[in-house]
Design goal:
The chain has 202 residues and is α/β, with parallel strands linked by helices. Helix content is 35%, strand content 25%. The longest helix is centred in the last third of the chain and has 24 residues. It starts with a strand and ends with a strand. Bound molecules: ligand NHR and glycinamide ribonucleotide. The site of glycinamide ribonucleotide has 14 residues, from helix 1, strand 5 and helix 6.
Length: 202
């Protein structure tokens, strides 16, 4: 069984989609823990109700980003993960931590990368006037939102969209592509060729 640790900061709807798919599709993997940098994340309560070990570790308790990441890394490693999944995790991670999990840390970002890195991606998409928007699953590297792309889904941007309506349309796709990408990882079907992700079909 592969061991997955999920990092969240809030609602945790992607986390729930992953937990559900792992159980329903009988992945060769278990969710070893859910870790949040916010104690009041609603996703933590859901994980606890499902018997998954849960930890809150607040970045506010550490003087620097480096100190927080050292504590976070040791907490993550205490669960011996094969894969670390960022699911709405809202803290930028330092290079030493990212290097430690190279090739075994995934993120879902709410835009069609390489467009619209960073925060407020739906606002950025509306301001740019793009007609297609979406979500990207990528390996995490030191450069924010720039790691090798595993999966993407596109949605139309409609004339009367607000950030909220657009976010909801994208989120629906996130709940499909993130579990699928993670399943490919735990089944050993992902590989990197010249910095590009290849997926072996089953
Ligand atoms: N860390 C590295 N090194 N590389 C990536 O690709 C990362 C990462 C950490 C998180 C998720 C990311 C996203 O999908 C992610 C990818 C937070 C911020 C941010 O600016 C930016 C991107 C992402 C996550 N966070 C603020 C900070 O100061 C805090 C914002 C808040 O608390 O609301 O860390 O978009
Ligand atoms: C998702 O849309 C995710 O892509 C995005 O936040 C939302 C989290 O929702 N992630 C980021 O913006 C990372 N900076 P969730 O907690 O319900 O999964």
């Amino acid at each position: 069984m592969r061991r997955i640790v999920i990092l969240i900061s809030g609602r945790g709807s992607n986390m729930r989609a992953v937990i559900r798919a792992a159980q329903n599709e009988k992945w060769p993997a278990q969710i070893a823990a859910v870790i949040s940098n916010k104690a009041d994340a609603t996703g933590l309560a859901y994980a606890a109700e499902h018997g998954i070990p849960c930890v809150a570790i607040s970045h506010k308790d550490y003087p620097t980003r480096e100190d927080f990441d050292i504590a976070l890394q040791s907490k993550i490693d205490s669960f011996a993960p094969d894969l670390v999944v960022l699911a709405g995790f809202m803290r930028v991670l330092t290079t030493p931590l990212v290097t430690h999990y190279a090739g075994r840390m995934l993120n879902i970002h709410p835009s069609l990368l390489p467009s619209f890195v960073g925060l407020a991606t739906h606002r950025q998409a509306l301001a740019a006037g793009v007609k297609l928007h979406g979500a990207t699953v990528h390996f995490v590297t030191a450069e924010l939102d720039h790691g090798p792309i595993v999966a993407q889904a596109a949605v139309p941007v409609l004339e009367d969209d607000t950030e909220e309506t657009l976010a909801a349309r994208v989120l629906e796709q996130e709940h499909i592509i993130y579990p699928h990408a993670i399943r490919c990882f735990v089944e050993g079907r992902l590989s990197l060729v010249d910095g590009v992700v290849r997926i072996k079909q089953d």
